[in-house]
Amino acid sequence: MMERVPGALGTSASLALRLGQTIFSSASLLFMCLDVEFYSYTSFSYLVTVMGLVTPWSVSLALVDAYSVFVKCLPRHPRVLLILIVGDWALSFLSLAAACSTASVTSLMVSAGPSRCPSRLCSRYQLSAAMAFLSWFLSFASTLFNLWLLPSL
Amino acid sequence: MMERVPGALGTSASLALRLGQTIFSSASLLFMCLDVEFYSYTSFSYLVTVMGLVTPWSVSLALVDAYSVFVKCLPRHPRVLLILIVGDWALSFLSLAAACSTASVTSLMVSAGPSRCPSRLCSRYQLSAAMAFLSWFLSFASTLFNLWLLPSL
Q1: For an interface test with B, which of A108, A110, A144, A150 has the most B Cβ atoms less than 10 Å from its Cβ?
Q2: Alpha-carbon span B15 to B46, nearest angstrom
Q3: Residues of A with CB below 8 A from B111's CB?
């Protein structure tokens, strides 16, 4: 029963999902943070805050999954799984909101012309929003897989 | 068993939720649409599109609920309920995205000063975004209640 659901906590598919979340959320954070002006826009600061929450969450769950896959299969309690699902769910909503705000503000700045945003900066903002969307998608997939497992426990 | 879950399809709590969604989504649509310039911004057009989808969906489900409460209790099939859950889920994601984009673009325009947006227009945009957030919240609540009912069928 433990390996029946791919993508649930402790399987190799879940490890792949978590690694993808880590890569995309830290890429989004870096694209936005290595710029010096992100704190002058509300939505860019919000994106940095949310991605700063998503990255440690994904890293720690990737470590749990790696331990469970390579060393010893950990037992799964329904209460732990419930906390995981609620956390994933909340973080996926937050990262969707952050990605949408960043994308819409960037598109407004692009339409305002190069006086508002030089093309080098604007493409970095766009890349950061795209990475945030990918991170949302993977975290939503994790939620669905864990939610699927919950009734069987 | 039919009335055990408040808020599921065909109960009076569900009727209240659907009426609330109808009111908030149409208010958001009207606050944005009675303005003539909404189509010059991508995120405002997106909000209008999404709210134009949410309003008829909520109205038709409110009619189904009203029929079920006041006239005759309709049978509930798992397949119909699954379509409802998926539709509510997709619309709640879309309306969260639209509300976030509108709110962030509005806050950017407010910070740009009154030359960019006169205060009468800006407060209407803000009201529209707030109504879209409320509509998202109610539609998410409907999703959760129906999802809770699904395993018992």
Answers
A1: A108
A2: 27
A3: 42
Q: Single out the residue of B57, B68, B60, B83 nearest to residue B12, CA to CA.
A: B68
pTM of this structure: 0.80
- Residue B111, min C-alpha distance to chain A (Å): 9
ipTM of the complex in this document: 0.73
- pLDDT for B64-79, tens place per residue? 888 888 888 777 788 8
Q: What is the spatial distance between Cα A9 and Cα A143, in angstroms, rounded to a whole number?
A: 10
State how far residue A133 is from chain B, nearest Cα, in angstroms. 11
